[in-house]
Design goal:
With about 230 residues, the chain is of the alpha/beta class. It has helices spanning about 5-15, 30-40, 50-60, 75-80, 90-105, 130-135, 140, 160-180, 200-205, 215-220; strands at about 20-25, 45, 65, 85-90, 110-115, 145-150, 190-195, 210-215. The chain has ten helices and eight strands.
């Protein structure tokens, strides 16, 4: 199937679920992203700042860019003027830098707290206690140009469906507890970004509001991109 056909099929599957499709365009050439765009897709996720900046410059300006990969504080300045949402906020230091750069751009940047839910050493994210401590801190309450919209998590890469379901369930439960404790009066704290090509249906079952799909839409062909930033 073509990229356009894949987009159409997934959007049909997600229809009436309220789940937003993030097309993960990392390593994909501009032509592939243009094909997805022409099929009606407007929300794209990138893993690296360098690649996202280059694509933002060359592609239509009504694209909504989401940074879904690990973000270093010294790279925030390159995307602060245009990024729509940062999924991977995993420390107060990073949040403070995002706020600093957002102030310079006179905008408020939507962010998700990346929560570590996987049974893998290589994943990034805060544990539940660290996230709660951050939200309780005086430093966090001083940040006026960062808007926390919800949480993001990546499940363990495993064939154990029960394990994946449990990890997604834990993230949904944690989201709901944060909502009650810290964001009860905030109508914008609604997002749970979980689920990728291999497990997005399980994530939707467990309450995901955003799925991040790459190979399901684009296939596995990749483009080598040299990072300069």
């Amino acid at each position: 199937m073509s990229i356009a056909a894949n987009i159409t099929a997934i959007k049909e599957e997600l229809k009436n679920t309220g789940v937003k499709l993030i097309a993960v365009s990392k390593t994909k050439p501009l032509e592939s992203i243009a094909e997805a765009y022409n099929a009606g897709q407007r929300v794209f996720g990138e893993n690296t700042v360098q690649e996202m900046v280059e694509k933002h410059e060359k592609l239509p300006k009504d694209i909504e860019w989401h940074l879904i990969g690990h973000l270093q504080s010294n790279k925030v300045k390159y995307l602060a003027s245009f990024v729509s949402m940062i999924h991977s906020v995993d420390s107060l230091k990073l949040m403070q830098e995002i706020n600093k750069q957002a102030v310079k751009q006179n905008r408020i940047i939507d962010c998700l707290l990346q929560i570590y839910i996987a049974d893998e050493e290589t994943k990034f994210g805060m544990d539940f206690a660290e996230a709660v401590e951050l939200l309780r801190s005086e430093e966090f309450n001083q940040l006026k140009n960062v808007k926390i919209r919800g949480v993001m998590g990546i499940a363990t890469l495993t064939d154990n469906i029960r394990m994946i379901k449990d990890e997604f369930y834990e993230l949904k439960t944690f989201h709901d507890s944060l909502k009650k404790t810290f964001f009860r009066k905030d109508p914008d704290f609604t997002e749970i970004s979980m689920g990728m090509s291999g497990d997005y249906r399980l994530a939707i079952e467990q309450g995901s509001t955003m799925v991040r799909l790459g190979s399901t839409l684009f296939g596995s062909r990749a483009l080598n991109v040299n990072s300069k930033i």
